[in-house]
Amino acid sequence: MMNAKFSLAAFGLALTMSVSAHGAEMSQACLDAGGPNRTVVIPTEVQSYGTMQYANTVDLEAKEVVLTFDDGPDPNATLSILDTLDRYCAKATFFFTGHRAERYPHLVREAALRGHTIASHSYSHPNNLRRLSWNRATRQITRGISEIQQALDGAPETADVTVAPFFRFPGLNHSSALRGWLGARGISTFSCDVGTDDWRRISANAVVYRALRNIRSKRGGIVIFHDTKMRTAAALPFVLRQMQKEGYQIAHMVPERDMPAEPEAIGNPDDPIVETPPLEQPVDHSLRSAL
User: Fold this and answer.
1) Beta-bridge mates of residue 19
2) In terms of Cα–Cα distance, which of 155, 158, 113, 161 is closest to 258?
3) Among 214, 183, 233, 219, which Cα is nearest to 74's?
4) Distance between CA atoms of residues 281 and 22, nearest Å
5) Which neighbouring-strand residues pair with 40?
6) By C-alpha distance, which of 207, 211, 181 is closest to 195?
7) Which of 208, 201, 198, 197 is nearest to 5 (CA)?
8) Strand partners, 225
């Protein structure tokens, strides 16, 4: 068991390292982490994921985790977290809120440019959407997605990025009716398998201890953090380093719609050419307009 009573002075030191030293750390951390993440494709078919609330989770291998971050973006914590993820070649899913995306659109774009999946977590993070009227609850969802998308559309380098069809309920306070409403719009719901308690007023040391304890208990799964907390930013390098030592791997969730199309098979150029016989009846091209 990792001793939680370590000094976080190394974290502050890491933030002041020179550019060349930082680059060297990135390369070594990536190498030690085994290179880029494995991609886990989330099917277009709508589902609910995360055994904290639902029957199933994403298709992971043993000792494999998916990193997720809620509530951001934040100008301090999010940037620090992005830098840590870079050092460990780790990709995550960010469940951003719409009002923070309005306020910090450049951070939404930064996360997308670094290869992370951008998802939604309502507009203003009401703690329980079930307590709102139906119209207000659905408006929270649609406006959140819209503001995040506007942030992405605000620069040409991310204009082709679309918010993933993934939604996480604020406070994980879901309802079957709202999940059905999301499903009708092709949006899957995400809970988690592993909590870290980083939303509580606890120390960074405690975040490390609880995150690792719960990851070990589940032997992996969807892990929930919050990228509005500096305690999380401080804890994350220690969590990732210890996971790496214990043989855990990080997987990156990507919606099926964003995966590149399979290239068409190309025949062996040495194969004999076989002529295709002509059609017996001409093709009626007038039907194309009906397709």
Assistant:
1) none
2) 161
3) 233
4) 67
5) 253
6) 211
7) 208
8) 69
Burial 62-98 (b: 16+ CB within 10 A, else e): eebbbbbbbbbbbeebbbbbbbbbbbbbbbbbbbbbb
The pair of structure tokens assigned to 263 is 């290239």
- Average pLDDT for residues 200-224, to the nearest whole number? 98
Give me the pLDDT at residue 158, please.
Answer: 98
Helical (H) or strand (E) element with 191: none
Distance CA 171, CA 166 (A): 16
In whole angstroms, how far apart are CA 132 and each of 78, 139, 167? 29, 10, 17
DSSP state at residue 270:
T
Residue with tokens 């953090």: 225
Domains and CATH numbers, the chain: 52-261 (3.20.20.370)
CA distance 275 to 258: 37
Per-residue tokens: 66:
């998916």
Encode pLDDT of 138-154 as tens digits: 999 999 999 999 999 99
- Residue with token string 């030592």: 245
d(CA 88, CA 271) in angstroms, rounded, equals 46
- Whether the predicted model's global pTM rises above the 0.85 cut: no
